[in-house]
Design a protein that fits this description.
heterodimer, A: 265 residues, alpha+beta, Sulfite Oxidase, Chain A, domain 2, five-stranded antiparallel beta sheet, 6 helices, 23% strand, B: 289 residues, Fumarate Reductase Cytochrome B subunit
Chain lengths: 265, 289
């Protein structure tokens, strides 16, 4: 049975294989993928289109996100990202000072009739309340109760034109630094998510008015997607054929910084 | 060399092969087994290191549907904090806190302190970049799933699954003896896998692969709407995330043992069988089923 015994040479060889795999991992040789325009990265990103197509095929258009019982609300909704647009936005400061009386939610773009709603008008419309789980792209989850007007109702009132393919949400908050300074947050989704019964323009959180840190006065809930697809501080909802003219053209603030547009996983 | 000894005209019956005797080469691994093996090896490398990058975005594991920020349901947390001796890295497992400075929570990158969960050498990319980690992870997740589908189909057709992976009553009977042989580093090179090998590959192919794919999908809010039952069988999204992490550790343990066994059992012969398909069995084992 030669060759079957553990000897010093074999142990050395074992160590060499182990060290070799560590050295391979230890290198930063895959850091070229950080470059958002790297062709290899762009090739790998095509898997996200496959994920979007697969989930659109697999997930029924009306399939609902799980809704929870009141007893599952065990904490406040964890604020993340922008938590106070007053720092950057003079307009937002004035809106708060006026108790939102000058706030208007505008529905614009590829619609038959452009619409504009005060917060009071939105609060008086038939609303939907849902206790859902917010899943952040970072990995954490938080359960909270959201109340708002179904987005589909607002879109129907404005009558979406057949050429519209996406809904773009523009926000008061801005994030990031760098040479260009903070950039305005925006998001987008397709018409399937926009007309989904659980997609709402939320003005209430856990039975209270939506707090500033969670997106006052209006935040979009898109319950079958990750947290970055739920824009806060929304002032304009625009129906578009393409979102290429917004931001850097990828369909959202985080998408412009390398995150996938679908955000369903 | 071995045949010279056999041809010495001795009247002695050849009950045991002489020392140093070589058995014949047998065709052991089909093209499907070999190709899927190496595709998995590459995919799992990228999935592991990009997965640790993703995990570093929130290096805490919880039990249940949500993450306890105002209540306690975490079982593992990696982080850094200031102490009288300066910043230190900590790992808290089931309430037990360990100082893991240098490896977990606080390590170095280009000579500077780096406050991350897993150190930069264990992540792709090496710097903190959740977006890129996700791009790499989901690409290779698709490769993993597609390769598993190819392997499953081929292994059903060529009977590899039934013959080599599914444990039979005979394998279960021989398992204790095989474990005892392995503990003594005594390996026989048979045409077929030993019971312990079958068990290891069974756990990985039929257990860990489906588990890590399903727990990965259970973290998708899109899939949660499509398959509401899926997240319930794992006991909530955060539990599914924890199981995904534990399954990852199962793969790491398997990898370490797998490579150690290859080295101990004769790396050239083992590698040849997984590259060319041909494997040299121990003398007298060529007809072993």
């Amino acid at each position: 049975m030669s060759g079957l015994i553990l000897n010093r040479r074999r142990l050395l060889r074992l160590g060499a294989v182990g060290a070799g795999s560590l050295a391979l991992a230890g290198c930063d040789q895959f850091d070229f993928l950080v470059d958002r325009n790297d062709p290899t990265r762009n090739f790998l990103e095509r898997a996200n289109d496959l994920t979007y197509a697969a989930q659109r095929a697999l997930v029924g258009q009306q399939a609902m996100a799980k809704e929870f019982a009141e007893t599952e609300i065990r904490q406040g909704q964890k604020p993340n990202g922008s938590t106070d647009p007053r720092q950057n936005s003079e307009i937002y400061r004035k809106l708060i000072a006026g108790d939102w009386s000058d706030y208007r939610l505008k529905i614009t773009g590829l619609v038959e009739t452009e619409m504009s709603y005060t917060l009071a008008e939105l609060r008086n419309m038939p609303s939907r309340t849902q206790i859902t789980r917010h899943d952040c792209v970072e990995g954490w989850s938080c359960i909270a109760k959201w109340t708002g007007v179904p987005l589909g109702r607002l879109l129907d009132a404005a009558k979406v034109k057949p050429t519209a393919r996406f809904v773009v949400f523009q926000c008061y908050d801005a994030l990031g630094g760098g040479l260009a300074g903070p950039q305005p947050y925006y998001e987008s989704c397709d018409l399937i998510d926009a007309f989904h019964p659980q997609t709402i323009a939320a003005f209430g959180l856990n039975g209270q008015a939506l707090p500033v840190e969670n997106g006052a006065p209006i935040r979009i809930r898109n319950e079958r997607a990750l947290g970055y697809k739920q824009p806060k501080y929304v002032h304009t909802i625009e129906l578009v054929e393409s979102f290429s003219r917004f931001g850097l053209g990828q369909g959202g603030y985080w998408e412009d910084r390398g995150y996938d547009w679908y955000g369903g996983i | 060399m071995a045949t010279d000894v056999m041809d010495d005209g001795s009247a002695e019956p050849a009950t045991a092969p002489p020392p140093g005797a070589k058995g014949p080469l047998v065709y052991r691994q089909s093209i499907f087994t070999r190709v899927t093996h190496w595709v998995w090896a590459v995919a799992m490398f990228f999935l592991l290191l990009s997965g640790l990058q993703i995990w570093n975005a929130h290096p805490v594991l919880y039990i249940g549907q949500q993450s306890g920020f105002e209540f306690e349901n975490s079982i593992l947390e990696i982080g850094a904090e200031n102490t009288p001796d300066g910043p230190r890295g900590f790992t808290t497992l089931f309430g037990q806190k360990f100082d893991t400075t240098g490896l977990l929570g606080m390590s170095t990158l280009n000579g500077q302190p780096n406050y991350v969960g897993f150190p930069s050498w264990a992540t792709i990319p090496s710097v903190r970049d959740l977006a890129t980690g996700r791009v790499v992870h989901f690409f290779f997740a698709w490769i993993l799933v597609a390769t598993l589908a190819v392997w499953l189909l081929a292994s059903l057709v060529n009977r590899h699954l039934w013959r080599d992976i599914i444990l039979k009553p005979r394998d279960l009977r021989d398992l204790p003896r095989d474990i005892w042989d392995h503990l003594r580093f005594r390996f026989e090179h048979r045409r077929r896998y030993s019971p312990l090998q079958k068990l290891a590959y069974f756990i990985v192919l039929v257990g860990l692969f489906p588990l890590i794919i399903l727990t990965g999908l259970a973290m998708s809010p899109g899939m949660n709407a499509a398959w509401p039952w899926q997240i319930e069988i794992f006991g909530g999204r955060q539990t599914a995330r924890t199981i995904h992490f534990v399954a990852m550790m199962g793969f790491v343990i398997f990898f370490v043992v797998h490579v150690a066994m290859v080295v101990l059992a004769g790396p050239l012969n083992e590698l040849r069988s997984m590259v060319t398909g041909w494997y040299r069995v121990s003398p007298g084992m060529e007809n072993d089923k």
